[in-house]
Amino acid sequence: MGKIPFGPTYSEMLNPSLIAPEIRKNALAAKKNDELDPLNLFNITWKDENDKVRKVVLPKELTGTKANIVVLLGKDFPSGSHKVGPAYATLIEGCVDGNILPGKHTILGPSTGNFGIGVAYICKLMGYKAVVIMPDNMSKERYDRIRQYGAELDLTPGTESDVILTLQRTYELKKDPKNRPLAQFELMPNYRFHRHVTGNSAIEAVKGIGNGRIACFTSAPGSAGTMAAGDAIKKAFPEAKVAALEPYECATLTTGGRGQHRIEGIGDKMCTLIHNILNTDFVVLIRDEDTVQGLKVIQDGADVLEELGVPRDQAVALRGLFGVSGICNILGAIKMAKFLRLGPEDNVVTIATDGFDRYPSVLEDMEKRYLEVEPFVLKRWARDVFFKADDDQIFDFRKMENKERLFQQKEHDWLPFGYSQEYLDSMRSPEFWEEEYALVKDYDQEIKEKR
Length: 451
What we know:
Elements: H1 10-14, H2 21-33, E1 55-57, H3 60-63, E2 68-73, H4 84-97, E3 106-110, H5 114-126, E4 129-135, H6 140-148, E5 152-156, H7 163-173, E6 179-181, H8 188-205, E7 216-219, H9 229-236, E8 241-247, H10 252-255, E9 282-286, H11 288-300, H12 302-307, H13 312-317, H14 324-339, E10 347-352, H15 360-368, H16 375-387, E11 394-396, H17 400-414, H18 421-426, H19 430-450
Helix pairs in contact: 4-5, 4-8, 5-6, 8-9, 8-19, 11-14, 11-16
């Protein structure tokens, strides 16, 4: 393998049909037979074995909207989450640039869960030692998966709402020259992966649905990597709106709020460095308990949903497809469809980062907080969480004076980490983001040459 591990280009992750047929065939076999076969790197894609985007169109009896809610499904990525994509992209760019060398460098993965799992998995396949830095009060399933892939855990105090502490710890650890961070909140490969691979997959996903266009894209920022899909969507459909979702309990982008919340998978209390504020049109607040109750309804409420008019086969088919952040994104999509008064030909696209497999303990914890979780309770939750989702708590950030507060938030968050005012100011220009995206072609060429 030499110094550059054998793995896919950005274009091959978007279109697996570009992969050499024998490699593609063997990679699909590895996915079924051996999760830790390095050929699984070539399974980092939104596409299935037939080169179709993995997605589900939610039943309108559940969403209560006229518009089509299209959800891209991340659970079938290697390691069980689409976060493996930006983890790989960041590592392979470091390899190509000569900044990260097997046998010499240890990889640091700051995360609240899925990115850390992706880092642990990628490092296992690519031959690197990994240390995942994350809060010490996340779901048990996340820690177990990271250890399963052979990475070390370096836990910081707190929960999802204390991600800034993981950044501070990462900056401390990277003072050792052998450590190289895959810093999802600040490194542009995360942006490039989602703009190129996720954004164009979303565009492909709506072909044949409604008018074949995307009226709105919704995503909770987390690292804001996934938000970059909105940049690709806006290029294809200039009328499309992009909505960032954040917890009502921690409305940092909206009001500067910094409370605690339960939506695992969403880093908060910051405006991440790679967040393209220019293309964020709205910010939507989602109550954290709605996401957990909504997950319980999807997992265990098929009978209840059938009583409420959702076709049983469709209700059953939704089981296992979403985690807590996926429900958050779905609720944001429903709210925006209502807010924008979208009709039956319109499409709203969102993302399910992972599946239910890493959340059983979250529902167990939820059930301890309630006296009972009987069918009549699930029926009430289904009505309150999905059917009654309305268009309140939506904030318009299209005017530049409103975006200015987000730019100031970004400065507040990142100047202390050594970024210059000049660099942060350059992000106010569309040209900055176009130049960063244009590097996809350069890296594709270098990966082909060096692998």
